[in-house]
């Protein structure tokens, strides 16, 4: 039960930060999303995002900050194996499945659901 609590709290805090960026910082949704991805990447680069995932589970892996973590994690892992070129290929290798799934499921939803208008 404690795991669910911390996942809810951490995920909620990440969402609150995003909402504050839009409301108080007057950032557009696109700027907010970009900022959250960069924040996740910076935390991953500093080695702080993995402990957050260990602590909060889905509370840290579901929000958009996790995408930044995935980018850095993939780039660093590939760079260790193949060098400088691995930085670019690692980003695409780790994130391609999630992006592809989002595109496919979004397309399928668009075919099956008719918006009211």
TrEMBL record:
Any idea what this protein is called? Stage V sporulation protein AE
- Keywords recorded for this protein, A-Z: Membrane, Transmembrane, Transmembrane helix
The regions listed as transmembrane in this protein's record are 6-25, 37-64, 84-113
Taxon lineage = Bacteria, Bacillati, Bacillota, Clostridia, Eubacteriales
Among InterPro entries, the record links this protein to:
Spore_V_AE, SpoVA
- What organism does the UniProt record list as the source? Desulfoscipio gibsoniae DSM 7213
Which residue positions does the secretion signal occupy?
none
Name the domain of life this protein comes from: Bacteria
């Amino acid at each position: 039960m404690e795991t669910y609590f911390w996942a809810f709290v951490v995920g909620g805090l990440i969402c609150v930060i995003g909402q504050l960026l839009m409301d108080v910082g007057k950032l557009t949704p696109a700027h907010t999303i970009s900022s959250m991805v960069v924040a996740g990447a910076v935390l991953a680069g500093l080695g702080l995002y993995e402990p957050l995932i260990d602590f909060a589970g889905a509370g840290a892996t579901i929000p958009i900050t996790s995408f930044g973590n995935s980018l850095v994690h993939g780039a660093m892992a590939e760079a260790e194996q193949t060098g400088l070129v691995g930085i670019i290929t690692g980003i695409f290798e780790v994130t391609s499945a999630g992006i592809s799934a989002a595109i496919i499921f979004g397309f399928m939803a668009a075919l099956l659901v008719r918006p009211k208008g």
